[in-house]
Amino acid sequence: MELNDRSLPVLSPEEVRILGCLVEKELITPDNYPLTLNALLAACNQKSSRDPVVEYNASTVEQGLQSLKERGFVRSVSGAEHRVPKFKHDVPFMLRLNPAQTAVLTVLMLRGPQTVGEIRGRSDRMYSFDSLDEVASALADLKDLSGRKLVMELERLPGTKEPRFAHLLCGNEGIATVTAAETGRSSGAGRGEELAALRDEVQKLRDEVASLRVELIEFRNQFD
Description:
Number of domains: 2
CATH topology of the largest domain: Arc Repressor Mutant, subunit A
Number of helices: 9
Radius of gyration: 18 Å
Oligomer: single chain
Strand content: 5-15%
Shape: globular
């Protein structure tokens, strides 16, 4: 069921990661979507384009999927064309998002608080924003989308010039956790971001290879 104007889901960090991965993979690797459990687990545990980096096990992802299915955010797909169950999301429908808003929210779900410039640069494979103003417009909509607040602007960290934005899918407790983590690492944020950007470029190829390996193993298993 679609959410009404005033309701807002309060999801766990695990559920947010799962949803973010499903949206991301649909947009950047549509040929491999919907995702199997193994492919989704690999996406959740990626080392690049993720903050925080996690090490979920299959049970954690299965529990998150079950909860999201019960709330209407995820559907399982099966049938003759799918030898193993696969999963797809209904995020835009449930939250009533357009493509630009979906891309912005997905970046925040997968990478934590971001500036307008970071969102534009890190969403380019999901949606092509023509300008920073277009990103800012999508953020403004998400801050008040039919009476529902899906993102908020955070206080600027010491030594930073640009404000960051965070999603509210985990509620106020999630924002408090994020703020504490951001404050604790603010002194090394600049150097850390530069290093993360370099690692991203290298790791993207590794993640793509890992995803292909998972698909190959699953394909071989069909004939064992």
